[in-house]
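Reviewer 2 asked us to include a model.

Predict the structure of this chain.
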Amino acid sequence: MTPVSTRRLRLGAAVAAVLAVTAGGLATAVPAAAAAPSAVSASASAVVPYPKEDPVLIGAGATGFLTWVRSDDRMRAVWTRYDGTTSEPWSFDESWITASRASDVIVRVGSDGTITLRDMATGQDVLSVRARNADFLGAVGRSVFVKASNSQGGHDVHLLAPGDDGKVADDTVTGLPPTAKDPRVRAATSDTALLTYTTSTGGHWATVDLATAQVTGTGAMTSDLTQTPIALSGTHVAWLGPAAGGVRTAVVTERKAAPATQRITLPGAVDSLGLVGGWLTYGQTGGYGERNPSPTYAVTARSLATGVTRKLMDDSDSSVAAPDGSLIVQGGTLEDGEGLYRIAPGANGEPAATQVASSGLSTKVTLLGHDIPAVVDLDRTGGRLAMVWRLSRSEVEMTLRIRNTRTGETLTDGVYPLNGDYDPHRAAYTWNGQLTWNNTRDMWTGAASGPYTWEITAKPMNGIGPELKSSGAFTVTRKPGLHDYDADGSPDVLVRDTTGRLWIDDTFPNPYAGYVEQNPGLLVGSGWNAYDRIEAVGNIAGSAVSDVVARDKAGVLWLYQGTGNAKAPLATRVRVGSGWGAYPRLTGGSDLTGDGRADLVAADTAGDLYLYKGTGSATAPFAARKRIGTGWGAYNQLTATGNLAGDPAGDLVARDAAGVLWLYLGKGDGTFAPRVRVGAGWGAYDRLLGVGDANRDGRPDLYASVKGGGGSAYVYKGTGSWKQPFLARDGVAWYSSAPDIRYDLLS
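Predicted model (structure tokens):
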């Protein structure tokens, strides 16, 4: 660097073509008023509010900082003092507003070319000048730089500042080659500006003393002068070289005669740097809103003396130099969140980041709240639960886990937060009331009544901060169905194999395929070959869950109350009574008497049909029998179906020896209307079960298993019409837990 001399000129004929007359003279300096009471400095202030609405940090001084803030589709320039007060001195209407570097001064460039400097520490304008045939380059402190074309094809740079006599002092910057083109003010300290320019030999930088308008040092640069980050301190100049091969080189040179230059290899994604007290700071901006991780989002400081590095912040957007040599950085830390930070040497000489303004936004992902009810009735909501969480930001990979705490069955699924401009960001998920059956992949079951937990994990996509983990609880309520032993609203089929083991097969209406699936059986217990009849009879004992009756070979009838737990679906048996061997056919589950309780009917060998009205008592579940018909010996199977035809009373179907199915509509008084022929061909089925609402359309359906116990079954969906009570059959996707097992009874 070669020192050069300069001379100061008053604004006069030499620059008359450059500066236009304003306020009656060639240029006017506005005298500074008496200083206002001193403002709180950044180093001594408490944390003040920082805008949330995508602010852009423009400049910072000893008493405050300037941001651009967009709101209501317009840009505003806001000066925030370190005591928390704000002002908007000018609007962007027909003007451009920026900051004067390393100072409390802000700049307004009007559409007519008038450049006005206002010292926000005092609130007074300190300079107003209009440049003609010259371009504004920038401002540092109370000085303005403009450029004008010269006769040698280059640009002259003028430094305009308030003069001691109240006029504008215009100094031509000396020490620049006359062929210098496209000069720009790129960095500054409180007493020095750093310019970049080009000549025929390439790019260059120059430091300019603000007091003398003299170039005090120069150097060559190989980077794009309009884009490369450049930093200046009292001792060093630094800039970033172009990225190549995934790395960038930071060039740091001393500001003295025979300067030493360091070339520091950095990751290629680094796009910002600064200088603070013998340390180089660097990082990749914009990490807060990114969707890909990068280790360079963190602001890192590297000692120019030893090469040791220190992490200072977790993300940053931009930075500006303050008059005292510190850096003011817009960004965040996991500890204090997003806002504005001052990076300055600490007591040990190493730089540290201290928050001076807070936006209230968390740098790490946090849960701001949720809208999940404590209790949800899935029958009232169509089997769905809308779940909403509010996150501090939406750029996350989010997973939800819903767990039935009683059965352990879970659902794990991804949640996709809704993109929003500002927090809170909504992450919404509509649960369809499904869980993985027995935690088996790709097999589903309905959510049973009972207690549940939800757990969310939100992993920040930018890799900044830990995963958010949060949980809560809710309760599911729903009315058990006619053939429902696990309280999930879907029918269950009881299956006995030839060895006497009883299984409970959960069914589930697949909402995507449109058919009913029958999951593999869960073992209820063994020894059930002691019974010659096992019948699902609906809720006869007063609980909310369907019950089962079983008749042993001595003719004794036993009651097994349903528990609502698929892993232990039946309570200990209770003796109902003897003499039930007189009935070759039993069925139950329909409310035939209109009292809201399921009843049982039994046909004896003479063909007489008897009604056993349900009482709702576990110890005496049936009232005394009542004969309600004769001639029922013509049927080899009776099935209580619930309300098939839309009337309040339950109904019955009966199959004759020829395989014709007949519908008996209940009248609600324990008797039936005349029978209606449903159709022929039903002799192909081994068992007909009134399973209730298998497809969850609100109407009871009929389940039919094929003879031979081979695991083939069909569902006849109910229509609600007595004229045609069923639609064409649909196959059941029956997933047997043991394909080699043969079944001898279904109920």
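Residues 1-39 have pLDDT under 50 and may be disordered. The chain has four domains: 1-190+209-214, 222-363, 367-477, 492-746. We have added this to the supplementary material.
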